[in-house]
Amino acid sequence: MPSVPYDDDAPLPADLMPWSVAPPRPGRAWPMAPDPACLRARWDALLKADLPDREALFEPSRARTLHSAVGQLPGRSAGTERLARATGPCAEPVRVLAAPFDEQWLIPDHRLLDAARPELWRVADEHQIFLVETPDAHHPLLATSLLPTPRAGRVRPLYRRPAAADPNLAPGLLDDLSARLGVRVTPLDLAAWFLAVVRPDHTVPLTDDAELWSSGVRLGHRMLWLLRRDGERPRLPGGRRPYVRAPLPPRPETLRYDPGEETLHLDGGRVSPVPAAAWDYELDGVRVLESWFAVRTAAAPPGALAAIRPATWPQPWTSELLELITVLTLLAEVRAQRDELRITSSVTATDLRHSGVLPPPRAARLPASVLDRPEEGPEGQFALW
User: Fold this and answer.
1) pTM
2) I need a labelling partner for 377 at 20 to 30 A (CA). Which of 103, 171, 327, 348 fits?
């Protein structure tokens, strides 16, 4: 995509999707891992330790200690007694987006997380789509159905309430664009458009050309499907699907790529075919496959809870690796198509101001009230609504 400054008065996501939240900040690494069983083992090790050792294992911070009093995360069932005297079972780990293209597991316990962002947990369900800002020129926005925890930019939920209710869009935007285009614009279509056309400076050119709109939305929906991976799983054509050609060792330590054979080597294990486009796929200058592998094989300090890991490479990781290769290969194709889009904003921020869409009202930048369930506060107290 072009790196020159833009001068067509394209609006920013901050105006089009007014409500945003900083990403959750765990504050310690051990409550998150690629394997859920080791998270339960870490929790058990924490609770079995005497108080002085428990404190060291916990890794206290200014925001969280064993004596912090916090409530449950919305929709979760973790205990609320102070961790210094906690005895209950581990909260059931949940799937989260730990880093771009890296799905892991998290203990959803408010007592373990420095900044959990409860407002995101209140609206996280199977209908939600989170758009996450990144500094990467090729992927200024990522999309996920999982709670995002990368240390990136702002998180913009597509919906302000559960069950796809109350789109997080400037009031009147959908009607305004629908009238200009002569087609019905849905929140999901607009999210797809954002993914397809967002620029490295995070501006979002808008158009009143129905044919151009259709092309961008179609491309964006494919990006949404590949990034969210819900429903039918992505597959490459027969003969191009990656398979394990030689069994992976119990604990692989090295990862290398042979471009001539299109083979990924995990020590003596071999996966192929792996297109060069998948191996070379980068985000913010880091190869995605190398980063994904390093998280699962990097050493942890002895004695720390993060050192409790699977004794051998779990089978689900192999399946996840094969799917990640597939997704990156297909996304590389979409990236090439996306880079060919050259859209000048024919519906400018000034146009939206003239039509009353911008600026959005202050209330649109605040979280909506979500009153669908009571929330347990510290020490078993229930929050008042």
Assistant:
1) 0.92
2) 103
